[in-house]
Amino acid sequence: MGEAMMSVLYLAALVLSTAGMLLIDRRFELFIFRDPRRAAVVLAAGLVFFLAWDLAGISLGVFLHGDGPYMTGVMLAPQLPLEELFFLLFLCHLTMVLTLGAQRFLRGARR
């Protein structure tokens, strides 16, 4: 596999995982496809919270970016790679899909 292809492997995995989560979300209308406006607000709030968390950790020297062959090398800020933004969006979406899916499942199980 070429070096250029390797450098986007992690980002591609995140995008592919997000696409899969969107398909699950669409199929069961759990989060984004249930109420897009509310979902956008929740995703934005989660992203802002976790970016602030990351930036605080970076400023304290707790979080450091390590070079790897699977990373693009694009930095949004010192020690903050582009992939982190995609990961945080995926994490927030995954959390909401799991939470709302579990709630729906448990409501159905009680009937």
Sheet with most strands: 2 strands, antiparallel
Can you tell me the number of structural domains? 1
Overall geometry comes to: globular
- Per DSSP, the total helix count is 4
Quaternary structure of the protein: single chain
Low-confidence stretches: none
* Number of DSSP-assigned strands: 2
In short:
With 111 residues, the chain is mainly α. 69% of the residues lie in helices and 5% in strands.
Summarize the SSE layout with pairings.
Layout: H1 3-6, H2 9-28, H3 36-59, E1 75-77, E2 80-81, H4 82-110
Helix pairs in contact: 2-4, 3-4
Note down, in words, how this protein is organized.
The protein has one domain (3-110). It has four helices and two strands. It has helices at 3-6, 9-28, 36-59, 82-110, and strands at residues 75-77, 80-81. A hairpin with a 2-residue loop joins strand 1 (75-77) and strand 2. Helix 2 (9-28) runs parallel beside helix 4 (82-110) and helix 3 packs across helix 4. The chain starts with a helix and ends with a helix.
Features:
2 strands, 5% strand, 111 residues, mainly alpha, two-stranded antiparallel ribbon
